[in-house]
Amino acid sequence: MEKEGISLKESIAKTAKSFLKKTESRDILLISHFDTDGITSATVMIKALKRLDKRFSVKIIKSLEEKFIETLPKDKIIIFTDLASGSLDIIGKNNLQDVFIIDHHEVSKEVPIGVEIVNPWFNEKEKFSSAGLVYLFCKELDSRNKDLLKLAILGMIGDFMEGTIKELDLDFLKDDDVNIKQGLMIYPSTRPLNRILEYNSNPFIPGVTGNSKGVIDILRESGINPENGKYKSIIELTEEEMRKLTTSIMLRNPKTNENDIIGNIYLLKFFSKLEDAREMSAMINACSRLGRSDTAIGLCMELSEAKKKAEEIHARYKQHLISGLDFVSKAEKIEGKGFVIINAKDNIMDTITGTIASILSNSSLYQEGTIMITMAYYEDKVKVSARMCGRVSNGRNLREIMENVINEVGGETGGHEMAAGCIVKKENEEKFLEVLQKNLEIEMVKI
């Protein structure tokens, strides 16, 4: 852990200086994760590299597997964003040189020679998303990159790290680039309420999410009626209407804390108008999870043709999500003290297992501190996503639990204390479940 003791700012400045020197006459391969944080990280880096007139290519991936690392070229500068912190041993084993990593996932291995890393894990575990880190890094490369701030904010909101947005130079933002309002954080805040409540899944509202009749009931109960055949949007509600709707949501989801659903609504300027940042984040995420990361990047680059495609993809994705939630609500579950495992096999897409686990972990269905695990088939593998219900880990670390299991079963893993995941071979599915349950039970005994 060679960077312990130096500040994050010093780490970024030092690594940026080295990057500029090493890339003077070298081709660059940029590799990033396919979620919103990864896509916005990649877009910030793409724009910065273009400004520097660098030669580069881009790969967006959903997981960093060993066989992929083995194929990476040794004659290029490789920069990973929003991944690779959990693959340091594999990178070292493959003797990759001149590798740069900008990531915020937990680090458990030594940094190999030839790898330079920016990660808050080395700096008192400061909370930052990768998009925020990449923005700060690119600002060190060239001060003109300050104008990429809204992409960093979008990535941080997409990774549920808006609490650290204040650490960025927000004074640079122009008033017409961002508008911050207080209200219900159900997106998009700019669209009619009846539509957004029906497809809303965070928070999951029993009897309302996916239920058009339930939507009309909750709106009528809150005193919100259509005007000229159209419902108001969240940002158009009066204080009284906002209060009543919040109360109605909390009555249907008693474990929801008002502070979890009321907060800042970020409206960011994209395509010459203010867009709800959470909606933009969801669209980016949907595009990548349905195999269209190119459209996701195009959306961030504000390419007009990408916006229409992204909207169509997002609509399809929401249908997949509602179907997936319906399936897991009826599926057989493996339940133990403090954990729930849902093995969907090939009944849901592997790319939405993490989203479904997140939705369930934020619902009122399970007690705070419960470990929620969802599984789905991916080619000849099983994709596993783990989430901690609520905001308290009770001393447990999901990345460590997943790592312990993978060390015994085989596979690849990564993540954080509250959210982690892994990939195992399908032939090891039964063994994985057996070892996973054993480790989860041991964790409960520790508590």
Structural class: alpha/beta
Query: Which sequence of strands runs across the widest sheet?
Result: 9-10-11-12-14-13
How many strand segments?
A: 14
The fraction of residues assigned to DSSP E strands is 15-25%
- Uncertain runs are none
Second-tier CATH architecture of the largest domain: Alpha-Beta Complex
Helix content estimate: 40-55%
- What's the gyration radius in Å? 22 Å
Written overview of the protein:
The protein is an alpha/beta fold and 447 residues long. The protein folds into 3 domains: 162 residues, inorganic pyrophosphatase (n-terminal core) (Alpha-Beta Complex); 148 residues, no CATH class; 116 residues, Diaminopimelate Epimerase, Chain A, domain 1. 42% of the residues lie in helices and 18% in strands. It is built from 16 helices and 14 strands. The radius of gyration is 22 Å and the shape is globular. It starts with 7 loop residues before the first helix and ends with a helix.
SSE topology:
Elements: H1 8-22, E1 28-33, H2 36-51, E2 56-61, H3 66-70, E3 77-81, H4 88-93, E4 99-102, E5 115-118, H5 130-141, H6 149-158, E6 178-184, H7 193-199, H8 212-221, H9 239-252, H10 258-261, E7 262-270, E8 273-276, H11 277-289, H12 293-300, H13 304-330, E9 334-336, E10 339-343, H14 353-361, E11 371-378, E12 381-388, H15 398-409, E13 412-415, E14 419-425, H16 429-446
Parallel strand pairs: 1-2, 1-3, 3-4, 4-5, 10-11
Antiparallel strand pairs: 6-7, 7-8, 9-10, 11-12, 12-14, 13-14
Provide a concise account of the structure shown.
The chain is an alpha/beta fold and 447 residues long. 42% of the residues lie in helices and 18% in strands.
